[in-house]
């Protein structure tokens, strides 16, 4: 099945039309028309990190001293 891609108004999407569309999107981004959406998958699952016993003891001592 051959399919010709067109815009809603029936304009065929050529390389020139695609270049204009891409330029419009980048111009809108430069103007701040869009905001970045944070990717929820960008951080791997945050798992607690294990500290070695000496580091844990030093951290606990520093926290106790701060109180």
TrEMBL record:
Annotated Low complexity bias: 54-67
Region named Disordered: 37-67
Domain of life: Bacteria
Name the UniProt record assigns to this protein: Uncharacterized protein
């Amino acid at each position: 099945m051959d399919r010709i891609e067109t815009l809603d108004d029936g304009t065929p999407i050529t390389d020139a039309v695609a270049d204009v569309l891409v330029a419009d999107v980048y111009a809108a981004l430069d103007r701040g028309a869009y905001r970045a959406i944070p990717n929820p998958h960008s951080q791997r699952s945050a798992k607690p990190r294990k500290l070695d016993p000496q580091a844990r003891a030093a951290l606990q001592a520093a926290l106790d001293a701060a109180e």
